[in-house]
Specification:
The chain has 157 residues and is α/β, with parallel strands linked by helices. It contains 5 helices and 5 strands. The chain is 43% helix and 23% strand.
Length: 157
Amino acid sequence: MHIEIWSIGKESDKFIEEGIRYYFQKVMPWNTVELVILQIPKKAATTDPARAKLQEEEMLLKKLQPTHYLILLDEKGKMLTSPQWAQQFQQCMNQGVKTAVILIGGAFGVTENVKKRANQCWSLSALVFPHQLVRLMVAEQVYRAFSILNNSPYHHS
């Protein structure tokens, strides 16, 4: 199963990119994972939350394929432990999911249509984090999940 982490916003700072590459490299023996940055064109960018969410929805729904398994990250989503992340990925693989997309929405969240399209909705924390940091955290959790699935000593339960 291929994993794509989609994040709406600008490119990551160099130190974040280095961290993401580090975890992607570590997960490579077991799985493929990539980061996809989705940027709204500058002409279309807006500070109006409702309009921004609609622009992002249009872009997301156009990019999503029917075969994509969408996992939305949202502060109101289900809190999962790291072993539960691993279990969810294992279930996806058992179901034959070819591509799991983990979506980090825009600054104003996502529309109801995007929420309805999501197969699952997870929360990283009750806290709010900057998008760039969330990208790094998700990269680490993907690595942690696959280390759990492959009995690597990285995760200590």
